[in-house]
Amino acid sequence: MLEKDPGRPWIHRLRIIELFDAQVNAGFQIFIGRRMMYRALDSNLLHPSSYSSTPGKTCQEASLHKVLMMDMMRLCKMVGGIFDCDATGCFDRMIPAFIPSHTRRLGLPKSVSCFVAQLMWKCKLFVKTKSGVTKESIRSKIGNVLFGIGQGNGGGPAMWIAHLIVIFSVLQTLVTGMVLSNPSMEKVETAGVGYVDDVTLGRSIVPQNNPVKEAAEAIRETGQTWEEELYTTGGKLELSKCFWVLFAWKWRGGRATMVTPIEAKQKVVIIQSESGVPVTIPQKAPIKPRKDWE
Fold first, then answer.
1. Start-end of H helices in the chain
2. Which residue from 206, 207, 205, 199 is spatially nearest to 223, judged by alpha carbons?
3. R_g (Cα) of the chain, nearest Å
4. pLDDT per position as a tens digit, 169-221
5. 35: closest CA among 64, 5, 55?
6. What is the pTM of this model?
7. Which helix (H) or strand (E) holds 14?
């Protein structure tokens, strides 16, 4: 276990690292992390909003995507906003039964996907410390299935991508993302940008009567939909790390200025699917740098 907060070994802030057999993990890296991902890329099966563990895509491009989303809303005086969210233990909460379907969709051979499924079902988990390895172990059983594909799995990042692009695709069928257009009125829709479990969702609207209220409701709908999708597939949003940014405008003398959080007086409340508890998501001002948000 690795401390997420160095010097503060709280039991709920430890990251479990799973040590797989070296040859098995090498196979995961070759067949899933490399061959499957390159085939999916060549076949145009990946979602454009997904960046991590993808050949030819970098974290710098993901950051640029996010910056351009907000710049376009500001320059074009669009109404809408973004919902920034973080998942709790994405690799540790994935449902193993979903992995074969998602990876085969990207071209992974049936023999490999079945091997992964059987391994996750039959493998025994031991605890290793500096004093040695425990004699006792745990494993999945009927009625008590262990979730997760393991931090340290060589194919884990690619498995998460196969999982994430399905969530992004479903999201775009349920809610409209951020719709951008050029001077020729050619339109393109983006759901946002995702880098591993850090996701920024974009939303734009055509306001009717109350732009501020309508934009806040649209952002809430997008955030709630993502939370429900993530929970349905085994995940969970870390709502304490989520925030939203509103883009709305007030006009005076032909000049537009952004509506501040104090002026907006809006709340975005997300209902936790696991507990049913409503959580108010903090609003951040778009005029402040990211460093001041934390």
1. 22-27, 37-42, 59-75, 90-93, 98-105, 110-122, 156-174, 211-232, 261-264, 290-293
2. 199
3. 21
4. 999 999 999 998 877 888 889 999 999 889 999 999 998 889 999 999 999 99
5. 55
6. 0.89
7. strand 14-15
